[in-house]
Description:
The complex is a heterodimer. Chain A is mainly alpha-helical. Chain A has one domain: MetI-like fold (Orthogonal Bundle). In chain A, 79% of the residues lie in helices and 0% in strands. Chain A has 12 helices and no strands. Chain A has helices at 2-10, 14-42, 46-61, 64-75, 80-89, 97-121, 125-133, 138-149, 151-167, 170-175, 186-195, 199-227. By secondary structure, chain B is an alpha+beta fold. Chain B folds into 2 domains: 2-225, Rossmann fold (3-Layer(aba) Sandwich), CATH 3.40.50.300; 238-346, CATH 2.40.50.140. Chain B is 23% helix and 34% strand. In chain B, helix 2 (93-100) runs parallel beside helix 4. Chain B is elongated, with a radius of gyration of 24 Å. Chain B starts with a strand and ends in a 6-residue tail after the last strand. Chains A and B meet through helix 7 and helix 8 of A and strand 7 and helix 4 of B.
Amino acid sequence: xxxxxxxxxxxxxxxLWISLKTGLVATVxxxxxxxxTARSVMHMGKRAKAFVDGLLTLPMVLPPTVxxxxxxxxxxxxxxxxxxxxxxxxxxxxxTWLGCILAASVIAFPxxxxxxxxxxxxxxxxxxxxxxTLGMSERRIFWRVVLPSAGPGVVSGTIxxxxxxxxxxxxxxxxxxxxAGKTGTISQRIAMVIQNGDYxxxxxxxxxxxxxxxxxxxxxxLFADAKLKNVKKW
Amino acid sequence: MSLSVNxxxxxxxxxxxxSFTAExxxxxLLGASGSGKSMxxxxxxxxxxxxxxxxxxxxxxxxxxxxxxxxxxxxxxxxYLFQRYALFPNMTVLQNIDAGLSLEKDARVRxxxxxxxxxxxxxxxxxxxxxxxxxxxxxQRVALCRMLAGEPEAILLDExxxxxxxxxxxxxxREVRQTLSEFPGVALLVSHDRGEVYRMSGRVCVLNAGTSxxxxxxxxxxxxxxxxxxxxxxxxxxxxxxxLLGSGRVRVPDxxxxxACEETPARATHVGVRAHYILPxxxxxxxxxxxxxxxxxxxxxxxxLTLRPAGAAATIRSELGKDAGGALQIGEERCFRLPRxxxxxxxxxxxx
Lengths: 234, 352
């Protein structure tokens, strides 16, 4: 016990903050992008929808390393886009915190997009018609009518996105690397200390991420239950 | 003030072809479910787009397929009362009403309008409530109030009482009638309930499988329907095909009878006789038909008889008062009269 407390006292907590910050920024990004994309895809034709939806869902079903591969292909300093970004705009993605955010966002995005779209498609179309005949602008209808009606689905999408972004490993390790205090996230720290045979520290980090993730999911369930009062059990 | 609609919309397995001009006052669209009533309203409101035709309100073109005009619903000044009211569940009564004032930019004017609407619709004290905390009647008042807030030039009511219990329905219908009587513009009421249409509208357009019949005065539709469809939708239980014999006589093969009637329009193909006009009578009277009583069903306030004239392929339905006709046994043979003045001659379709 004393041993654990000693480790906790001397532990480098930077992975926790980096993971939380990454998760938060990625979630905000994914929220707006996911909501916007969901709304656009909803209005597409049947075939375009199937195709675009497939493309947008890929990061969820492929190994994260595949996403990492493509991200490196784009942003590597040895590639045209990466070179352009670095030389012209001084933006560096590889081996930076920006890389953490990008990797986490790409992997978590499908969760936000799919949940938002499912929620939007459930919205009673008469409410939207009502808004239109009342003279509300399309933008106002979206923010004041559609989004609140789709609330529970959008919220659970957002929380899942955060949980997924928080724990991202594969794409992050390829794009951002594991630089202590800069891009070293919790999941990367766990892999690293295990490689060094330090199971106690690894276990502590596992405990931390377990508590956070489990807490998030439980919170989400409570929230969803409160919102779904009228759903009958079967 | 008039609303002129002349549209075609093609849907899978169904074509809507509606044409009428409604003046100020209440005009009803009457038709069975699936006859295209709601789709017609949606096209007028602009939330659905017709394939062809033109819609204009008081000279203002809302839609014209030929000229490529399609005003968005926001710009049409057409109010819509939805069947289940479509109140925004996440907004309070006040915010719902404010949504109806979306086009009013001046905050002072908006506040003034909002206050006068709330008192006009007796919503004082309910401003902070959410739709789920309102009774059915209050929800309807909020929906009416919200719809009228934007001062629409025409209003569309889509089966406003369909989802209600009958005792509540009467009360709400009275309130809506009151509101409609104060509304200066065109009001279109969609309904499949002929009683509602009779009580609420001055003119009526019958919709049959997506095709509209010419507008007629509501009273006239019920007293003198011209077409088979109009007779059926106005509640005529006995319709059968007929052959004109001339000089006020008509042969009805299905009933195996020849009847005297008032007029014999050349295009008539059917006759109709309303069930409650068919009463027992003595033999030898005009239009007396000897029938076998096949069934007697006690309804709430009437007795419904199923009658088969001698040698007839089809039966006739008669509705009597509880006491009329005395004891009637199933299997009994009695004469029933189809009064000459109540034999309606009907044509298949309307065009001349």
